[in-house]
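Incident log entry.

Two folding requests arrived from the same account within the same minute. Monitoring flagged them as a possible duplicate submission, but the sequences differ. Recording both here for audit purposes.

Request one:
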Amino acid sequence: MDYVAECEKSLSKHLGRGVRIVNGKRKGRFELEFYG
């Protein structure tokens, strides 16, 4: 498993919600799933 996928899994487990890490050309972003 690669580093980004492992981080997504760990963050999702700790936060209790869906997490995605999106890589861009120069920077990336975290996407948190929530309902409101």
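Request two (distinct sequence, not a duplicate):
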Amino acid sequence: MTTTTVTPVVASTTNATTASGAAHTAASSIHNASNYRRSYASTLRTWTLHDCSALTNVRSGDEMVALWGRWRGTRGKPVTTTWTVTPESLDASWTSFVNRWNTEPGFAEVVDGRETDRRQRALGLLREEVCRLLWDQERTSCLVHHLEGCPSCREYGRSRLNVDAWNGVIARQPFTEEERFCIGRYRRALSEFIHAAETPALRPHARTPSQYPECPRGVWREAPLYPPMAGTQASELDNAWRGATERCDSWGPT
């Protein structure tokens, strides 16, 4: 009598079904993740560049576009497309700006503070460069000390020269081309800093703080790298600079 053996195929069928289900689940997960990324990316570009329709408590569209440009400038970023800046990235930046303006009552002050800090840092570096260049040429005084008061010169007990004494220093030893170029940059930075200090900043219309209880008013804490001379106000620096402009005009490019 011959016995026939039947090989079960249930396990193989089950394994194939499980593998097919896993593949379907993986494909579904990838599809859902892709949809989520597209959905999330779209929220980053809710509003196109310069679309002011969603802004609240604004003065004018032009002022808001200008404030956005200043905000971009505090981080050294352009406001137009370049080979690295796409229209989509500008839309995302504008959307972020709209959200922050609508939810942060102190956002304009934050921009003002960042601009001031950026200008002070740039001006401080130029002051140090001018001082270093002039002392490298073995001059008896520093232009920054003459105009504003230089901490480095004060540290070494150098007195501030009056107009006649300073003009005598320059007559005996004219500036080099490198010094003239650096002094020109310093003059422009100082002029811009004084002008910005005297220009009223953009302020939003009155807001109702209770509308955004979860967003406390932001406070910008400045930490200038190069503080002005004690007791010196912007108006005093302006007067000193204007008084020195005529005698500085021939020293470097404007």
